[in-house]
Amino acid sequence: MEKVLQVKNLHVRFKTYGGEVQAVRGVTFDLHKGETLAIVGESGCGKSVTSQTIMRLIPSPPGRITDGSIIFKGRDLTSIKEPEMRKIRGADISMIFQDPMTALNPTLTVGEQIMEGIRQHENLSQAEAKQKALEMLELVGIPSPAARLKQYPHQFSGGMRQRIVIAMALVCEPEVLIADEPTTALDVTIQAQILELFKSIQQKTGVSIILITHDLGVVAQVADRIAVMYAGKIVETGNRREIFYNPQHPYTRGLLNSVPRLDSEEAELEPIAGSPPDLFAPPAGCPFAARCEYAMEVCDRVYPFQTSLSGEHQVDCWLQDERAGKMLASMK
């Protein structure tokens, strides 16, 4: 499949009074044309920092990219100047932020906010921009779009505001859409509607989507491939079936076991014991070792090599690596 975005060995740090936080530590993944890639993990694992870095939205200082590349259309987004990035941001790569309640400007009509992106990136007249904004409102399922175009954000419900935010992100027909926790602030009924909207829009436009979330229920409905992230690293990747039915990393299994189940009265939640590591001074070995019931001596001391289990399924875990025995022997 055609790759529209390639993130390679990405490292991002934030300088603070207490030292440098290593928020993203060697993240690598590809996004293929027309697919939905979900990046999942606990809060604080680096999901949102990764997505904001792709958009070049991390504040600098204190944040900085210390290594790696983000390749889009043959260009490395980590090295281009801000004026060039502004031409890409919103036109070729768009982002939906976490909270629809605060993502919109309360002093401007939704029509003005949608048309702002059109005027920024496309050479259209006011009438043409308005017509395109109307078409976008229809695409995202807003009733009476002509009347709604003149209204302000406070006149919309939370679900409608999220649809407006999606319309703003898609109005310039980007190739990549990054959705950062797009359903977190919505109730489950509206969540289902928004997820159906994502699938419908992807079928109509062919946009490639990176979905950032901690909700595995959302992932199960829309993702083609899944990247499991922990302590600034991607520890397992695979397609939806491989991750849900054949998880290989203990952290992935822990995430799945902590999801409520309705198909069994005896099923109990199994929380993951312990806390994530301190990213001021990350461990040399596997970052999950302190919380893992299967941890070996090698896990504490050496980060595992990536093991390929199939064409799409890779995992960073000594349990799946035949070299673990040799590493253990060399330590004795």
Structural description of this entry:
This protein has 332 residues and is α/β, with parallel strands linked by helices. It folds into two domains: 3-92 and 174-269, Rossmann fold (3-Layer(aba) Sandwich), CATH 3.40.50.300; 105-170, no CATH class. Helix content is 34%, strand content 24%. It is built from 13 helices and twelve strands. Strands 6-7-8-3-9-10-12-11 form an eight-stranded mixed sheet, with helices on both faces. The longest helix has 18 residues, at 188-205. It is globular and about 75 Å long.
Which key phrases capture this entry?
four-stranded antiparallel beta sheet; 34% helix; alpha/beta; 332 residues
Overall average residue pLDDT: 88
The CATH architecture of the largest domain would be 3-Layer(aba) Sandwich
Q: Roughly how much helix do the residues carry, as a percent range?
A: 25-40%
Q: Structural class of the helix and strand makeup?
A: alpha/beta
Count every beta strand, where a strand is a DSSP E run of 2 or more residues: 12
What's the domain count? 2
Runs with pLDDT <50, length 5+? Answer: none
Strand order of the largest sheet: 6-7-8-3-9-10-12-11
Computed CA radius of gyration, to the nearest angstrom: 21 Å
* CATH level 3 topology of the largest domain: Rossmann fold
Q: In terms of topology, how is this protein built?
A:
Layout: E1 3-16, E2 19-32, E3 36-40, H1 47-54, E4 63-72, E5 75-76, H2 82-88, E6 93-96, H3 100-103, H4 110-121, H5 126-139, H6 145-148, H7 158-170, E7 176-180, H8 188-205, E8 208-213, H9 216-222, E9 225-230, E10 233-239, H10 240-245, H11 250-257, H12 297-301, E11 306-308, E12 314-316, H13 324-331
Helix pairs in contact: 4-5, 4-7, 5-7
